[in-house]
Amino acid sequence: MVQIAKGVFDILPHDPDQEGQWKQTYLWHYVENTIRSLTSLYGFSEIRTPIFEKTELFTRSIGETTDIVTKEMYTFEDKGKRLLTLRPEGTACVMRAFIEKNLQQLGSVHKLYYIAPMFRYERQQAGRYRQHHQFGVEAIGNSSYFQDAECILLLFALFKTLGIENLKLHLNTLGNAQDRAAYSKALYDYLKPHEKDLSEDSQYRLGKNTLRILDSKDLKDRTLLNKAPSIMDFVTREEQEHFEGVCSTLKTFKIPLVINPFLVRGIDYYNKTVFEITSESLGAQNALGGGGRYDGLLHSLGGADLPSFGFGAGLERIIQVLLAQGKTVPEKPMLDLYLIPVGDKAKQHCFALMQQLREEGFSIDMEMQDRKLQKSLKSAASKAIRFVGILGEEELNQNIIMLKEMAKNTQDQVPFANLSRRLKRA
Ligand code: AMP
């Protein structure tokens, strides 16, 4: 038997494993539907891009020295010898489509969202998958700090609607491109004399992607970083005001935030505001979502010089937190009626009845395999079904059906004419 590839998972109508509860389709529908109604309240429209793009798109935007580009991309050559990559993140793809379709002609501000699978060759561990799914937004064309705040508030609105609690919002600013470069140099100058005391990863990053060292969890790195120069001393007045605008707007809406000068995030194109939302209900991989501003990205990919803000949030982790916090989720969808015919004539009749009731809007299924009545009843009892209807020769002659109400474990005879009325939900 060929088994599933490493690091990926199936999303199923029903997952028999206790720890696989988050992989059930109805929970994904619930979260996705909530996202769709909230994004429309906030004026975002959906964009769908292909799951693969030319590799160059990602190397140019995410950054040649980032973990994603150096270690994690699923890159392959197709039969036409083109170098392609399965999308590891959504922003670059949206920017590519925006430029290619010249969407800027449609207005001054463009608010787009996506729900899409992402592919990263990650080391296998809890909370990290090689295919994961992100809800992401990209707001293009608006440099106001209200845009940053609006996107973050949208993500919090999602968590609030789902009932997710105890979240932490980490917020930082990286200043504009010049501030960021000046800070990166100062950090390099500070760390260089201590190079041999840094962890192996940080030694590799020094000079290549120095800011990422701020993310390090290594104890020795952390001790050194405690005395490192702070980004806040390199951020110009204008950028500080932008950042204060974001913070004060979020505070107005009672969003609990922590200013974290070590937050840089793993992608090169960020500047100004960056943020991450974490939950203690998750394990080591505790980030539910994150994002920030990337004002130069569109231009660097050949588009207009428009500012942008966006985020990505992982659906797997959102559903895992929902369940870990014991939140009420909708019930699994139930079939209204499962028909079990006894005999050929009844089978014909059941099939017609099934189609008629479906047209009336009821969800119906039926036994078609001539199994023994007891067997059909047993398999019906293990499924999410409201009523089971048994139809034999005798019932057929009397124009009635034997209706079992599964939750109450009762049964009675119902004339065909009354069946729809009985099936109606309260
Ligand atoms: P990133 O683009 O790395 O900032 O990721 C955005 C969000 O996607 C994270 O906060 C996670 O919730 C989720 N995420 C990223 N990578 C993975 C992964 N390998 N497996 C599961 N979720 C992920």
Entry summary:
The protein has 426 residues and is α+β, with helices and mostly antiparallel strands.
Write up what this structure looks like:
The protein is an alpha+beta fold and 426 residues long. The chain has helices at residues 25-41, 55-62, 67-72, 91-100, 145-162, 177-191, 200-205, 219-226, 237-252, 297-300, 315-324, 344-359, 373-381, 393-398, 419-423, and strands at 45-46, 52-54, 75-77, 83-86, 110-119, 131-140, 167-173, 257-259, 271-279, 287-293, 308-314, 335-341, 364-366, 385-391, 400-405, 410-415. An eight-stranded mixed beta sheet has the order 1-5-6-11-10-9-7-8. It has a five-stranded mixed beta sheet with strand order 13-12-14-15-16, sandwiched between helices. The protein has a three-stranded antiparallel beta sheet with strand order 2-4-3. The longest helix has 18 residues, at 145-162. The chain starts with 24 loop residues before the first helix and ends with a helix. The structure holds adenosine monophosphate (AMP).
